[in-house]
Amino acid sequence: HVNPYNGNVYITDAYNYTVTGDVLCFNPQGELQFRLNDVGINPNTVVFSDKTSLSEVNTGEPDVPSAFAGKVWEYTPAPGQFINTVTSAYKEGFTAGQVLAYADEQIKKRSLLTLGGFGGNITLGFDHTVKNIAGAYDFKIYGNVYEGSSEPGIVLVSKDVNNNGLPDDEWYELAGSEYRSDKVIQEYEITYYRPVPLLANVRWIDNQGREGSIPRNSFHKENSYYPLWMDDKITFRGTLLPNN
């Protein structure tokens, strides 16, 4: 692709429709101006616009923030029907470190990851600050949008105040529709147990004196619903929303 406004040439190194490619920009003299890494599967469409009327100066190294989160800092799904599949970033024999690395790869490819049952969580990072714009949607989270199958969750946000690039600053819970409901249980705690045999239901108990299990279904019969790379019991703590 050739930019008709300045003559810059854009090419991609993706050679088919199944690989993720980079976009490279060269000036008319053949000098590399910048490279956008992993922008998508065969990114063969480029849109140009004339910005000569603006006061911006082209430094040759534009700041192009991604529209999607591009880093997985932590990934700890709870038991569920998609656990121990690609949707939980798992392949046979994977360790926790390998699951985290694969989850990071999946997010960069804009794939979805399962969180499983209550407590399952993921910590994502952006390559830029997400601005809080009054009266506008600042970001969105993809998930089930089907009637009867919505799975709301708790969302927390944090700013890299200490500028160390790590998610170790204070976190703030966003107030959802049920934030002030008297049906919400704060400081809820649930513990899941590895089933024996592995293809059995996953037993759980909570700090409300209740117990139960995550039952298996007819759609996912081959995989254990308990994360095989985790300990024999796992405990999650957080805010429990009321049932739909």
UniProtKB/TrEMBL annotation:
Database matches in InterPro entries: WD40/YVTN_repeat-like_dom_sf
Name of the protein: Uncharacterized protein
Species in which this protein is naturally found: termite gut metagenome
Taxonomic path: unclassified sequences, metagenomes, organismal metagenomes
